[in-house]
Specification:
Blueprint lengths: L1 H22 L11 H23 L9 H8 L5 H16 L7 H13 L4 H33 L30
Helix pairs in contact: 1-2
């Protein structure tokens, strides 16, 4: 059991600590040359202390107790709340890959496989939901582009005719049609 393994580890650590105390000791009158070995012993004691803290923190836990893995594998939904929990877990897991270039193809194949056992009425309802979602996305994109155009476009006042067009009603210019002959 996990408690027995933990007790065995604790006993091994205590024995190692006692052996270290007997072999090297912690003399107060160590020389300066032995400062490096003192740092090594302190580092080793720190690591042992950290290992003890980790063992205490995770005492009795196994890999099977991790919830994220068990939600997708062990959950067999029967109620609406369980289906909501499964939906949340699946969406979280799938959306982690949404920036991948094959994500859209994956979704198309997944939806196709999930929709195969549906009846035609259920499929039409699902299709109308997707169509509504697509229309809302298009409307949001269109509204966003209109806002960009209206905010970036500056109002300008035209005070003269365009320079590349000739005003044919204005006879004040010195245009001579005979100059254009050949």
């Amino acid at each position: 059991t996990p408690e027995e393994r933990w007790a065995e580890r604790q006993a091994e650590r205590q024995a190692a600590k006692a052996q270290m105390m007997a072999a090297g000791g912690f003399d107060e009158g160590e020389s300066e040359d032995d400062g490096e070995s003192k740092k090594m012993r302190e580092r080793k004691l720190q690591l042992e202390s950290d290992a003890n803290n980790v063992d205490d923190l995770f005492a009795g836990l196994t890999v099977k107790d991790v919830k994220n893995k068990d939600v997708l594998t062990a959950l067999v939904p029967k109620t609406e709340a369980e289906f909501d929990e499964l939906q949340t877990a699946l969406v979280d897991r799938i959306q982690k890959s949404q920036n991948h270039r094959l994500y859209v193809q994956f979704l198309e194949k997944l939806i196709r496989q999930l929709a195969l056992p549906l009846k035609d009425v259920e499929m039409r309802k699902f299709s109308s939901t997707l169509t509504t979602l697509a229309n809302e996305k298009q409307r949001m994109t269109r509204d966003a582009s209109k806002k960009k155009k209206t905010t970036s476009k500056k109002a300008s006042v035209v005070t003269s005719a365009p320079k590349d067009k000739v005003d044919m009603n204005d006879y004040s210019n010195a245009y001579d049609e005979y100059d254009d002959f050949m």
